[in-house]
Design the sequence.
């Protein structure tokens, strides 16, 4: 049995991406913190570099989010906006929504209850 | 009175461990279940901030976290070796009307939250937050109430 596990395997964050028409849905699971946030940041950078400018971040399976994670989401928002794109969030968990409310970021990110709602939202 | 002292290297990977320890002790001393998420978030923010401070100072000195329980209060103190900003709760974003303007954030650090942001988050969820500085560094102390144990045991 190999003990040479990669860094990615040890990171407690899962990312799954699928296209939905002109938009790209990124389903995030696990914890977004100072340790795992770089993985999400790199993923968003790669998506924008590949031409995905309209992103939906599905956070329903996110167990923990801190200000480092918020910074990555803001960074993603700034990147897609520089291409006239958009970044919508999907989240109904109050413990996650609370940090958006505390920081006032509920006024910056469009936050939806379902991916379908986000897909039909007008930018 | 229960006291747990933790000292950890200033690495992002250890912040999760610190959160889990704080959560376990908070649950053990009887912090209300509906406050445990706040404990986890606040401790994570304090430890993340400390890790960032040590990274800026390029020091591998350990970060200390003390968890204590007395007077029906659960307290967590995170200590880093850095100096305290003049106004640690001042962040570079507009909170006058509760609106954040990310465009004002530093473009070169588009994925980094402004200095003080973590403390603003802690201040938003913790009623008792005290940030002080001394020769040892900066202390971020947070506290939550612990309801009396009806059995009289701790």
Sequence:
């Amino acid at each position: 049995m190999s003990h040479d596990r990669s860094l990615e395997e040890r990171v407690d964050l899962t990312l799954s991406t699928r296209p939905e028409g002109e938009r790209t849905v990124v389903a995030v699971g696990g914890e977004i913190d100072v340790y795992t946030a770089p993985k999400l940041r790199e993923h968003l950078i790669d998506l924008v570099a590949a031409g995905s400018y309209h992103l939906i971040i599905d956070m329903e399976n996110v167990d923990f989010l801190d200000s480092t994670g918020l910074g990555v989401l803001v960074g993603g928002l700034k990147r897609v906006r520089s291409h006239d794109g958009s970044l919508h969030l999907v989240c109904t968990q109050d413990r996650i929504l609370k940090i958006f409310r505390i920081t006032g970021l509920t006024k910056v990110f469009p936050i939806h209850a379902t991916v379908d709602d986000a897909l039909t939202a007008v930018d | 009175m229960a006291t747990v002292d933790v000292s950890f290297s200033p690495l992002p990977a250890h912040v999760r461990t610190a959160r889990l320890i704080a959560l376990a002790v908070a649950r053990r001393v009887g912090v209300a279940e509906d406050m445990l998420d706040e404990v986890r978030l606040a401790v994570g923010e304090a430890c993340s901030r400390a890790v960032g401070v040590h990274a800026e100072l390029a020091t591998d000195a350990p970060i200390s976290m003390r968890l204590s329980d007395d007077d029906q209060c659960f307290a967590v103190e995170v200590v880093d070796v850095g100096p305290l900003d003049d106004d640690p709760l001042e962040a570079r974003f507009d909170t006058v009307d509760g609106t954040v303007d990310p465009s004002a954030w530093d473009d070169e650090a588009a994925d980094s939250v402004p200095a003080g942001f973590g403390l603003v988050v802690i201040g938003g969820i913790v009623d008792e937050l005290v940030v002080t500085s001394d020769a040892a560094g900066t202390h971020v102390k947070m506290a939550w109430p612990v309801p009396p144990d009806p059995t009289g045991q701790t």
About this structure: The interface with chain B takes residues 12, 31, 33-35, 37, 41, 64, 66-68, 70-72, 74-75, 77-79, 95, 98-99, 102-105, 107-108 of chain A (CB under 8 Å).
